[in-house]
């Protein structure tokens, strides 16, 4: 298991039946696009969405973004068609919604092996991002995350989760505190990325910032988005604050000056190995490109 060969803070959903949106989607600076065949597409549009997505992948999407494809789930009866009709080279990963068991991932691996052979792609190269968005999925999250080497992360979907439990979705989010934390812990235990679900109110930037901050505090390093305007605030929310970076620099410098072992004191506080590891991680994240501007 490993996270993908990428750092993904923002994964922008683009409805698979919207060639106009797909053509422009590479401009917005999202780390990845998720071309959607599932709940972002009305049932009567799904067959056409497969054709649109296949055509876009064959032609190549301007800006050469990393492309994920969200297929319909294992229980939908639509998954085989989605794979046959929409999967094309250029699909970095499949997003598997409403995942409840590790067996679903294992079955998807078998389908992918056949597709990769058919399309003359290197075997095993296509990754899988299972979405945990129901009670059964939460209970199985650790097994799902560890089910296959293709798994690059676990995504938590709060909207479907609350629908599954029949509970209200509140701004405070007490109803998702446990599953959201559990999915992050399961992802980290397997060494894969924790990806938070969408923030639906796409005009509410302050709310998005707070929501992303809450996800980050639980160990999430990426978030699914539904609108281009969400890219900038999400990248900013995942970026370490200047004071945090400065402190991390001091911690790493003091630790190295002390010979790289033992305990040192920085700003009056004890610094030992876990603190240094956190500081090094902060510096690694901070050295990534800053908030992206819109690409032309
Ligand atoms: N991907 C790519 N482009 C998008 C986009 C998306 N998810 N959402 C909006 N845009 C584009 C629009 O096409 C528009 O482009 P244009 O100005 O060049 O014509 C621009 O961004 C501004 O869009 P705006 O008018 O503010 O939004 P809208 O009212 O057209 O669309 C939504 C609002 C929510 C319908 C739209 O953002 C959307 O479809 N999001 C994805 C929803 C989805 O996939 N849900 C399933 C996963 S949960
Ligand atoms: Mg969902």
UniProtKB/TrEMBL annotation:
Residues 9-228 form the HpcH/HpaI aldolase/citrate lyase domain. The keyword Kinase does not apply. Keywords: Lyase, Magnesium, Metal-binding. The keyword Cell membrane does not apply. One of its GO terms (molecular function) is magnesium ion binding. Its cofactor is Mg(2+). Substrate binds at residues 70, 133. Pfam families: HpcH_HpaI. SUPFAM superfamilies: Phosphoenolpyruvate/pyruvate domain. Coiled coil: none annotated. GO terms for biological process: oxaloacetate metabolic process. Mg(2+) binds at residues 133, 160. This is CoA ester lyase.
């Amino acid at each position: 298991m490993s996270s993908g060969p990428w750092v993904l803070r923002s994964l922008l959903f683009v409805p698979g039946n919207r060639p106009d949106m797909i053509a422009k989607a590479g401009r917005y600076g999202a780390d990845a696009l998720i071309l959607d065949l599932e709940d972002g597409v009305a049932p009567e549009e799904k067959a056409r969405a497969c054709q649109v997505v296949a055509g876009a992948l064959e032609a190549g999407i301007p800006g050469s973004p990393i492309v994920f494809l969200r297929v319909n789930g294992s229980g939908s009866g639509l998954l085989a068609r989605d794979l046959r009709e929409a999967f094309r080279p250029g699909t970095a990963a499949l997003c598997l919604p409403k995942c409840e068991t590790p067996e679903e991932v294992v079955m998807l691996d078998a389908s992918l092996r056949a597709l990769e052979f058919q399309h003359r792609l290197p075997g095993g190269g296509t990754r899988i991002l299972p979405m945990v968005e129901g009670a059964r999925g939460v209970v199985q999250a650790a097994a799902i995350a560890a089910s296959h080497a293709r798994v690059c992360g676990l995504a938590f979907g709060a909207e479907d989760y609350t629908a599954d439990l029949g509970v209200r979705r509140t701004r405070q989010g007490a109803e998702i505190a446990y599953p959201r934390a559990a999915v992050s812990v399961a992802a980290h235990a397997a060494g894969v990325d924790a990806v938070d679900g969408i923030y639906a109110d796409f005009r509410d930037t302050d709310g998005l910032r707070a929501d992303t901050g809450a996800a980050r505090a639980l160990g999430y390093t990426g978030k699914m988005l539904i609108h281009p305007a969400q890219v900038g605030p999400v990248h900013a929310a995942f970026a370490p604050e200047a004071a945090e970076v400065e402190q991390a620099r001091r911690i790493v410098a003091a630790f190295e000056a002390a010979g790289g072992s033992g305990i040192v004191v920085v700003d009056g506080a004890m610094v030992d190995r876990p603190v240094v590891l956190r500081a090094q991680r902060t510096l690694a994240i901070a050295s990534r490109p800053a908030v992206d501007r819109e690409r032309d």
